[in-house]
Amino acid sequence: MRLPLLIVAFFALHCKPDNTTPIPGDPVQPDTFYVGADLSYTNEMEDCGVVFKENGVAKEPYQMFADNGCNMVRLRLWHTPSWYDTLNAGKRYSDFQDVRRSMIRAKAAGMPVLLNIHFSDIWADPQRQIAPKAWQPVVANLSVLKDSVFNYVQSTLLRLQADGLSPEMVQIGNETNRGIILSPADDAANAPINWPRNAALFNAGISAVRAVEASSGKKIKIALHLAGPAATPDLMEKFWANGVRDFDVIGMSYYWAWHKPTTIAEAGATTAYLRQRYAGKEVIIFETGYIWTNASNDQSNNIISETHPDYAPASPENQLKWLVDLSTEIKKRGGIGVLYWEPSWVSSPCYNPWGQGSAQEHATFFDFNNNVLPNGGMRWFKSKF
């Protein structure tokens, strides 16, 4: 969405302080600008034999990111990703046990966690929001399905809490530009969102987080997540009008490849608009990514191939420039963070559902020898905005 220049100027907000790292274990801090990373693939990459290196020396990846200034880790949670059973060694990832393993690593390195609940057994996004197989028999029974959502979110958080692993923030769904928890048939039909149903399911998940928060006395930020700055304002109006209001953060995905022609300035204008329209709600870019090369290092097709004219050609330096410029704009407009999607999904001998290797190795923070790119995205974490 291209906001008029007068609106952009009116809603421009003052810059926040420079990046600070929160105290480990504390709730999300209001004066912190988050420069974070989705590290959901890291365990899988290491199990597939990847050794992450910095300056040619092997290093524990979570500690590597923390040492370089990463101050939030995002982790996706799938309900029952049984499709992994036929891949590689048959080990599942992004299920509860894998997320628990990742949270232990993140918290040991002093980084807060954003738990990204997909409400699916596989990726949920603007093209797909299929209910977990376990819930598909009850997708048409809203009362039962609401209970399933509430119980799932509550039990997940209570299990993590019992291990001292409460997340600082929880996403209720991933890129929810369409209705969530759909039957395969309804998902394929791509029907308009049934807002009474949709709102009831979101509020069930939100209520579960609030219940755990109340019982533990520990603040947990609640986030919604939408894809594309142009689509977000209209969708947020629908959430708000249908009574989905008890949340803390509006998260957006913003990739040039998928959200062009929206510019960085327009993403900033949308951030400023959301901050004004929904007073008291924070705004974070939950996902962005930028390629450092057009080359490939494996047999899996890469999912991003385009560069912005002002950030071309693809190079580590332009990857860094994209991230610094985006973060500068989002912070200037009142946002509190930018998170990078999958900076550690490098090539490996293992298979994903589409082929051997990674669909994103050309957009990670590592070269094709799994060594940190000297002038690439890893430097972004300690940049000044």
What does this structure look like?
Helix content is 33%, strand content 13%. By secondary structure, the chain is of the alpha/beta class. The chain has a single domain (5-382), classed as Glycosidases (TIM Barrel), CATH 3.20.20.80. The chain has an eight-stranded parallel barrel, surrounded by four helices. It has a two-stranded antiparallel ribbon with strand order 2-3. A two-stranded antiparallel ribbon has the order 11-12. Strand 9, helix 11 and strand 10 (337-341) form a beta-alpha-beta unit. 48% of the residues are buried. Mean pLDDT is 93; it is low at 1-28.
DSSP helix fraction = 25-40%
Rg of Cα set:
20 Å
- Summed up, the helix count is 11
Which CATH C-level class is it?
Answer: Alpha Beta
Rounded mean pLDDT is 93
Which geometry do the CA atoms define?
Answer: globular
Measured by DSSP, the beta-strand proportion falls in 5-15%
The CATH architecture would be Alpha-Beta Barrel
Class by SSE composition: alpha/beta
What's the number of extended β-strand segments? 12
The spatial strand order of the largest sheet comes to 1-4-5-6-7-8-9-10
- The N- and C-terminal alpha carbons lie at a distance of 25 Å
Main pleated-sheet profile: 8 strands, parallel, barrel
How are the secondary structure elements laid out?
Layout lengths: L4 H7 L22 E5 L3 H6 L5 E2 L2 E2 L2 H7 L5 E5 L18 H13 L4 E5 L24 H21 L6 E4 L11 H6 L5 H22 L4 E7 L4 H10 L7 E5 L2 H4 L4 H14 L4 E6 L28 H17 L4 E5 L9 E2 L2 E2 L29
Provide a short characterization of the protein structure.
With 385 residues, the protein is of the alpha/beta class. It has a single domain, classed as TIM Barrel (Alpha-Beta Barrel), CATH 3.20.20.80. It has helices at 5-11, 42-47, 61-67, 96-108, 142-162, 184-189, 195-216, 232-241, 256-259, 264-277, 316-332; strands at 34-38, 53-54, 57-58, 73-77, 113-117, 169-172, 221-227, 249-253, 282-287, 337-341, 351-352, 355-356.
